[in-house]
Every structure is written in C-alpha cells, then in structure tokens.
C-alpha cells in the first residue's frame, strides 16, 4: 500500500514529519509518499541521513494554514499539500492520507474531494481517548460537528465501533452516550432521542455515561456531539499536563522527594506514556469515501510514526468499505420497519 503524508502540516513540519516517516519505514514495507515543498522535504531527508527509496516526495507549492477559511482555501489552493494528498487517495495513487495540518481543511477536503459515504449525513472526527491502566477508548465526535441530530450520533457510534474493532482490535466494542446522568430519561431532547436510536440498533450499547466515568474504562466507544467531545478532549489534555507538571514539581522539592522519584522512575515513565497522545496515533475522519487520519498540530516524530503504523490496519481491514456496508444495512432496516 501507499501512505500519503502531508509534509507541510503542523507546527514542526517538515522535519518531524520526515523523521516520523523514516522511523516508520524501518518497521514496515509499505511505500510512504511525502507531499509538500520538494526542496524542503528533500533537504530534511538528507539532513536525517535517509538514503533509501521507500520514501518518495511529490511536490506541492502551496500550504493551507490554520488561519485560513478551510472551505475557501481548499477550493483555491489546488496545489496545496492537503488538497493534492487527498486527491491522490481519490485517484487511486494512495491508500490513506495523513496530516497534522488544518483540521477544517482536512474535513473540507474529505467532503469536497472524496465525498460522503452514501447514507452518512455528517462525517465525524474520532479521537483515541487514553484510559489510565487500560486500553484506550474512542471518543466521537471531537469537533467536526458542533451541532448534531440524534441520527448523527447513531452514525458516529456505528463508525466508531467499526474503527475500534478493525483497527484497535476490540471485538464487539461497548458504546456509551455522554449525558448528565446514567438514567434512561436524563438529558436533552437530543440525547433522549439518540438513546432510543442506539437502544434499537445492533450496537453493543450500554446506555448513558457521565464524563467522570471516562477514566474508569466505562466503554470502548464514547459518543457525543462535536462541541462536547472537543471540550472533553481539551479538558482531559489540560488535566493530564497539569498532573504531570505538578508531580514533577513535587518530586523535585527536596532530597527525600527526589529519592522517591528515583525509586518510582519506571512507574512515572509508564504514567507519562499513557498520558502522551503521540503514542496513540492520529484521529480518523470517518464517513468519507477514503481513509483520512488527522494528527495533533504539534505532532513529533513518535506521533507521526505511530499514526503511519495505525493507518495500515485502517486500510487493510477496509474500514471505509465496512462503514458503507453497515450504513446500508441500517437504511434497509429502517425502510423495512
């Protein structure tokens, strides 16, 4: 397979992108194509000592920044790394596109260049949600759709479940609906209607869940609207950084605490690893006719490498095709009732 990588997206491009591609190339046999300003990427490959032929470069002279209006930028900047990379997936020149660039541009490009899967009202951004001392969950949506209908939440749950099963290897994943209480009648008109749809679906739905339960591995797939999901992700990220920062400060207070830090070094390293988003790879944009993965804007070499590795089962398990089949079955079920 051919993995298309945005060489110009993110805060640390192109160097971190290139280093991540080189690190991944040592572990896989698949081809990696880096799209972006050819001279800059070639210089970075050379500076990092790469001499193989597994990584190639496709030139794209334009870059879409986070400050630009996504839809306008995608329509105008045809030679940007994002537009060119997504078009390569559409045209069969690549199997998956990965970027740490503008989320809005990725969503717009997915919709305008690849198109929505038939039967999907809105694509979703599904983020891997770390759970301490347990396998991570998937949180969807995390920002693609600030306002949703109940039908959208059912679609998010269906797509998130397939990604969890096929890419992260969780058989028959459990699904929970974020709410302000666990009782069936709790919540807004949106969550009440979504609860009914999820209960009637073939998904392994366990009911409403509260945000305080997320770190207890309450379910595999966490479903909510994009506004709430984005707030959950940013609050969790901020709390994680705060806890790690405070632990470091307290362990460096005096000689006694420093000795404790030495004794707990391995445990602290494991804790930091579990909090590190880079370990989990990028967030899939599900619901479009092609495989797209969005990385954090500040992704480093490890994050890029892990996302490349996660992209392989995403493509080889044909997650996009299985979503199409699942949505088609749901529509057939609705029409027969």
Automatic annotation (TrEMBL):
Its EC number is 2.3.1.274. InterPro entries: FA_synthesis, Phospholipid_synth_PlsX-like. The keyword Protein biosynthesis does not apply. Pfam families: FA_synthesis (PF02504). Pathway: Lipid metabolism; phospholipid metabolism. GO terms for molecular function: phosphate:acyl-[acyl carrier protein] acyltransferase activity. It catalyses: a fatty acyl-[ACP] + phosphate = an acyl phosphate + holo-[ACP]. It is found in: Cytoplasm. Its main location: cytoplasm. One of its GO terms (cellular component) is cytoplasm. Keywords: Acyltransferase, Cytoplasm, Lipid biosynthesis, Lipid metabolism, Phospholipid biosynthesis, Phospholipid metabolism, Transferase. GO terms for biological process: fatty acid biosynthetic process; phospholipid biosynthetic process. Belongs to the PlsX family. Homodimer. Probably interacts with PlsY. Catalyzes the reversible formation of acyl-phosphate (acyl-PO(4)) from acyl-[acyl-carrier-protein] (acyl-ACP). This enzyme utilizes acyl-ACP as fatty acyl donor, but not acyl-CoA. This is Phosphate acyltransferase. It comes from Aminicella lysinilytica. The gene is plsX.
């Amino acid at each position: 397979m051919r993995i298309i990588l945005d060489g110009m997206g993110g805060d640390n491009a192109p160097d971190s992108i290139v280093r991540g591609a080189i690190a991944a190339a040592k572990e896989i046999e698949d081809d990696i194509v880096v799209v972006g300003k050819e001279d800059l990427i070639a210089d970075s490959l050379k500076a990092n000592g790469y001499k193989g032929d597994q990584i190639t470069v496709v030139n794209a002279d334009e870059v879409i920044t986070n400050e630009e209006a996504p839809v306008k930028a995608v329509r105008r900047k045809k030679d940007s790394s994002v537009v060119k990379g997504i078009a390569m997936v559409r045209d069969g020149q690549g199997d998956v596109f990965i970027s740490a660039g503008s989320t809005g541009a990725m969503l717009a490009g997915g919709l305008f260049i690849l198109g929505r899967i038939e039967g999907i009202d809105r694509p979703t951004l599904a983020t891997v949600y770390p759970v301490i001392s347990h396998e991570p969950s998937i949180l969807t949506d995390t920002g693609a759709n600030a306002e949703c209908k109940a039908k959208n939440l059912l679609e998010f749950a269906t797509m998130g479940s397939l990604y969890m099963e096929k890419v992260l290897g969780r058989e028959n994943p459990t699904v929970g609906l974020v709410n302000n209480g666990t009782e069936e009648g709790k919540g807004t008109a949106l969550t009440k209607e979504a609860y009914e749809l999820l209960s009637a679906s073939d998904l392994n739905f366990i009911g409403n869940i509260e945000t305080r339960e997320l770190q207890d591995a309450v379910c595999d797939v966490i479903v909510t609207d994009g506004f709430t999901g984005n707030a959950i992700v940013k609050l969790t990220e901020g709390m994680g950084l705060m806890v790690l920062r405070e632990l470091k400060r307290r362990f460096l207070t005096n000689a006694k605490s420093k000795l404790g830090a030495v004794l707990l070094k391995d445990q602290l390293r494991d804790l930091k690893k579990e909090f590190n988003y880079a370990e989990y790879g990028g967030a899939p944009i599900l619901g479009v006719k092609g495989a797209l993965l969005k990385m954090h804007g500040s992704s480093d070499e490890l994050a890029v490498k892990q996302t490349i590795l996660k992209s392989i089962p995403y493509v080889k398990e044909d997650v996009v095709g299985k979503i199409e089949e699942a949505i088609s079955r749901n529509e057939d079920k609705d029409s027969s009732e």
